[in-house]
Amino acid sequence: MTSQLLDNAIFTLIAFLGRFPWHYLIEIFITSCVLRAIIGILDTPFVYWSVAIKRKVKEI
């Protein structure tokens, strides 16, 4: 989680610093963190499912 926050902060600063005011940078940072968390929660079951399928195929 810490590495994702650091990665997000660095990306936001490099991509948008000087283009938007600070309050927009903070909004972009928070929105990206929330979206990463939501995507992580939603894709986790599919990752486990695909690993289970791969293990079954490997046994055959």
Describe this structure in words.
- There is one protein chain.
- This protein is mainly alpha-helical.
- It has one domain (2-59).
- Helices cover 88% and strands 0% of the residues.
- It contains two helices and no strands.
- α1 (2-16) crosses α2.
- The longest helix is centred in the C-terminal third of the chain and has 38 residues, at 22-59.
- The chain is elongated and about 55 Å long.
- The termini are far apart.
- The model has no long low-confidence stretch (mean pLDDT 94).
Main attributes of the structure:
60 residues, mainly alpha, elongated
Detail the topology: elements first, then pairings.
Elements: H1 2-16, H2 22-59
Briefly summarize what is shown.
It contains 2 helices and no strands. By secondary structure, it is mainly α.
What multimeric state do the chains show? Answer: single chain
How many domain regions? 1
Distance between the termini: 37 Å
The tally of strands reads 0
SSE class: mainly alpha
